[in-house]
From TrEMBL:
InterPro entries: CheY-like_superfamily (IPR011006), LytR-like (IPR046947), LytTR_DNA-bd_dom (IPR007492), Sig_transdc_resp-reg_receiver (IPR001789). This is Stage 0 sporulation protein A homolog. Gene3D superfamilies: 3.40.50.2300, LytTr DNA-binding domain. CDD domains: REC (cd00156). Keywords: DNA-binding. May play the central regulatory role in sporulation. It may be an element of the effector pathway responsible for the activation of sporulation genes in response to nutritional stress. Spo0A may act in concert with spo0H (a sigma factor) to control the expression of some genes that are critical to the sporulation process. One of its GO terms (molecular function) is DNA binding. PROSITE patterns: HTH_LYTTR, RESPONSE_REGULATORY. Coiled coil: none annotated.
Length: 244
């Protein structure tokens, strides 16, 4: 579930935003919990934590800038989207690292675009966090072995078996490259060679068609896979830049 708050002292704005977001939820089949506040004070005293906050800058009482600064003291990850009637933004407004700044009057297509972008960012961050705690079971013969995704450097096909090279040591698995790709498709893994599956997050460098892993092992990139590998890396790096 994605927890969203709208904080604006103009009731007409909160009603418009609510209608747009709830319609978006229905059309995209998302799972939202939506809460509306009409002052910064009310938002700050709420005991809920939010994934996304649409926050008016100019409100009576505690304004949006001060509200955002106080929110950031306890929550570094919430995505703040400012709503403002003024094109110019102060240095204070920029200091909270908001996801976006939207000018009023609000436009349906702009809100939808922002929801698309911020949800993609939240999903990407969740995948990164999941990789640190997520475990996957692999076939190790008579038994299975459970590995943390974040611990895996790479897999190598050796003599019809798979060698898993991890931060905790090496393990022999009774898997195939295809079965690994299926198990790992939601995480940041790439197959640069028919005998290797690599964890992109544990790559150190890429030089002359060779990948240098964080443990300094060298992984070859097959010539026929080089263009796809470079495309995947560009997309990965672009997402990293967008989410920082």
């Amino acid at each position: 579930m994605i927890n969203i708050a709208i904080c604006d002292d103009e009731h007409v704005i909160t009603e418009q935003m609510q209608e747009i977001i709830m319609n978006y939820q229905k059309v995209r089949q998302e799972d939202f919990q939506l809460t509306i506040y009409h002052s910064g004070e009310k938002l700050l005293t709420a005991r809920e934590s939010y994934d996304i906050i649409f926050l008016d800058i100019y409100m009576a009482g505690i304004d949006g800038i001060e509200t955002a600064k106080r929110l950031r003291r306890n929550d570094k990850t919430v995505e703040i989207i400012y709503l403002t009637s003024y094109a110019g933004l102060t240095r204070e407004a920029l200091s909270v690292h908001a996801f976006e700044y939207l000018e009023k009057p609000i436009k349906r297509e702009v809100i939808i675009k922002q929801l698309d972008e911020v949800l993609e960012r939240i999903l990407h961050k969740k995948l990164i966090e999941d990789s640190k705690t997520k475990t996957i079971d692999f076939n190790a013969g008579k038994n299975s072995i459970r590995l943390f995704v974040d611990d895996i450097y790479y897999f190598e096909r050796v003599d019809r078996k798979i060698k898993a090279v991890t931060k905790k040591g090496n393990f022999i698995l009774y898997e195939t490259i295809a079965s690994l790709e299926e198990k790992l498709h939601t995480f940041d893994f790439v197959t640069p060679h028919q005998s290797f599956v690599v964890n992109i997050n544990n790559m150190k460098d890429y030089v002359k068609d060779e990948i240098v892993m964080m443990n300094y092992d060298i992984i070859p990139v097959a010539q026929k896979r080089a263009s796809d590998f470079k495309r995947i890396m560009r997309e990965f790096l672009q997402k990293q830049l967008e989410n920082n």
